[in-house]
Amino acid sequence: MNRSAAGQDLPDLIVGANYHPHDSDPATWRRDAAMMREAGIRLVRLGHLAWDTFEPSDGVFTFDWFDEVMDLMQDHGIAVVLDLAVRPAPLWLHRKHPSIDVVDANGNRLYPNHRYMDDVGDPAFRSHAMRFAAKVTERYAAHPALAAFGIDNEPGDGPISYSETVRARFIAWLQEKYGTVEALNTAWAGHRWSRRVGDFADVGLPKSGTYSGAPERVLDFRRLVSHEVETYLGELLDVVDANAPGVLTTTNMWYYADGKHFDYAPIAYKGRITRAGNGFYPGGTAIGDDGLRGALFGMARIQYENTTPFWCTEFTTMTAVPGSIRKSAYASLMLGNQLVCGWTWQTMHAGEEQFLQGMVDWDGRPNRKLDEYRRIAAEFAKLQGSGFPYRPRPEIAVALDFPSQIASAALPERHDAQARTAFEAVLDRNLDARLVDLARSGLDYKLLVIPGVLVLDEAAAARVRDFVERGGTAIMTSYSATLDADGQAFAATRPGRLDDVFGIRVGSYEETAMLNELALGRTGVEQLDVEYDGRTITAATPRFDLVEPGTADVLARAAGLDGRPALVTANRYGAGRAVYVALPARREILDPLLDSELARLGVAPGPQVPAGVMARALDDRHVLYLNLDAEPKPIAFHGKGTGVLADARHDGGFILGAYDAEVVAFE
C-alpha cells in the first residue's frame, strides 16, 4: 500500500472515476458512492471546472455541500483527488476585471463562451485564483479522504490572448530579457524587412489578424506565454505547499494542445507535481494501435525524467470497443502508470459533453463501460505485490524541445512528430525510453536520439558534446541544430555548435520530389532509395540534407541520385559516437540503425515476444505481457511460472489470447 499525506491508503494500482457532484443531489451522491465501492473504484477526481459552484459571487464561498461529498467518499473508502478548479474563471470575475478576457489577433474581445477563455497572466485573475485555491486547500488539506490536490486542468488548452495588457507584459518581459533595444534588434534581426525597434513601445504582438510576424518574434512571444503559464502553475503549487505541506499533487497536464502549447520542461524538472498526470485518450478502436501509441507518447512527454508513478487522471470511456479500455489500461502500466481514472462516471445531462458517454447512463443505470472498469479493478487487486507500479529503467533518451516545436512550424514536419517516431521505435522493441530536455538533463543514458531539434542553445549543445565525449551514442536527424537560441540560422558550419562532434558539414537541403524528376522522369515522388548495410531501403521524405563527411564515415547513401549523396554518417568523438541522419526520423532508417547501435552499446533487448506483444520485466520475478492484436500469440520463456490474472501454472510458455493481458510470476 501507498499512503498519502492525508492518510489515505492507496493500492499499488488504482481504478478511479471523474465525478461531478455539483450536477446532482445528496441522494444521487449516496447511490453513486455505493455503486463505486461495489465496482472496486477506489478514487474519484472532484472539483474540476467548478469554480463558481464553490464561489458563486466575489468572496462568497459555499463549501458545506462539498463537505458532505468528501465525508461520503471517506465513509465508502474512496480517496479523492481534489482539483483546484481555477479555470475557467467565473463570469462575475470577467465582469469585474475585463482584462481577463481573451482578445483575438484581430483585436476583438471574446465573450467566454467556451472553457479556458481566460488570460492566466493577468494579475487580477491571478489574485482571485490564488485566493480561491487558498480557501480550498485550507479547508480540505487534512481531510482523511484527500489523496492529492489537482493543479489546474489542461493548462495548454484555450486561446492565446492578444490584448493590450498582454502586449504591456510582453514589453516588460523583453526589457528584462534584453535590457536595450539594440540587443533586442540583434536578437530579432530588426533590420530585416525594415522592422527595427526604436523604442520598446514600438513592440507589437507578433500576430495581426491572419498575418504572423517574423519567427524570432513569434518564438519570444511564445516564450512569454509559456513563462506566464509556468509561473501561474508555480503560484498554485506555492499555495498547496503553504497550506498542505506533504500532500501529493497531480494534474491533467495537457500542455501540448494546439491552442496554447507551452514549455512544460521547467515545471517537470522541478518535480513539484509529485504525480505527473494526463488524460489517456487512445481512441475507441481495438484494431490498430496508432492512437494507443500516441497516448503513450503523451504520457512520456509529461513524465520526462521523473521517477515517481504516473497518474492517468482521465481515461477513456465513450463508445470504446468492448475490451479496448482494458487493453489501454495495461498498455499504460508499461510506462509506469498507477491510476486509471475514467472520464467520466455519469454521462452529463447538460453542456458541451452531454453526449460523451460515461460509465453510467443519464438515468443512473450502469452500462458496459462500468462493467469493464469493474473487471480492471478486480484484476488490479489481484496484482497487488506483483511489481507495480512499474518503474522504468531506461538506457535510451529522446530529446524534446519547446523552441524547436514552435520554430518547426516553418518546416514540412513538426519537431514532436519526429520525437514521436523515435519514441515509438524504442517502444516497439519493448525497451524503456525517457523524453528529455537537453539543457536540463544529466543525460545518464547509453543512447540519445535528437530528432529534429531545430533550435540548439549553448547549454544543450554542451550537454550533447559531453554526452558523446564520455562514451554515449547520439543519433541526430535532419532539421536539427539549424537555429540558435534566438531562432536565427547558424552562420557557422552546421550542425550548429556540434559539427566537429558529428564530423560533417551540413549544407543546404534538397527536395526529394524535385531531384526525382531527373531520376524518375515524373513529378511528385518523395520516395528515396537508401543504400544501407548492403541493402536498399525505401523511405518517404519531402527533404533531405546535403552532407559533406569530414572525419565521419558514411553508413548510407542515396541510390539513383547524381553523386549518391551521403544520408547516414557516423563519427568517433572522445569515447563516444555521433550518428547523423540526413532525413527526418523515419522508421525505415531508424529501425536498422537502432538495431546496430544498441547492439554496439550492449543494451540488453526487451523481453522476447512475438510481434504485436508488449512486455516489461516488472522486477526479478514478474513480467507483464499484453497482446495488442486480434490473434492469440505464443509466449515462450525458460522455467515455470504462474499467471496471476488467470491463476494458471505455466511451464516454458503459454498462449496469450487476443487483446489479452497477463502477469507471470516466475518461480
Question: Features of this protein?
Answer:
667 residues, alpha/beta, TIM Barrel, Rossmann fold, nine-stranded mixed beta sheet, eight-stranded parallel beta sheet, 18 helices
Tell me what you see in this structure.
Keywords: Glycosidase, Hydrolase. Residues 19-382 form the Glycoside hydrolase family 42 N-terminal domain. InterPro entries: Beta_galactosidase_Trimer (IPR013738), Class_I_gatase-like (IPR029062), GH (IPR017853), Glyco_hydro_42 (IPR003476), Glyco_hydro_42_N (IPR013529). Residues 404-601 form the Beta-galactosidase trimerisation domain. Its EC number is 3.2.1.23. The structure is a single chain. Helix 1 packs parallel to helix 3 (64-75), helix 5 runs parallel beside helix 8 and helix 14 crosses helix 18. The chain has four domains: 2-157 and 226-382, Glycosidases (TIM Barrel, Alpha-Beta Barrel), CATH 3.20.20; 164-204, no CATH class; 396-601, Class I glutamine amidotransferase (GATase) domain (Rossmann fold, 3-Layer(aba) Sandwich); 613-666, Golgi alpha-mannosidase II (Immunoglobulin-like, Sandwich), CATH 2.60.40.1180. It is globular, with a radius of gyration of 26 Å. The protein contains 18 helices and 30 strands. With 667 residues, it is α/β, with parallel strands linked by helices. The longest helix is centred in the middle third of the chain and has 29 residues, at 215-243. A hairpin with a 2-residue loop joins strand 20 (527-532) and strand 21. A nine-stranded mixed beta sheet has the order 16-15-17-18-25-24-23-20-21.
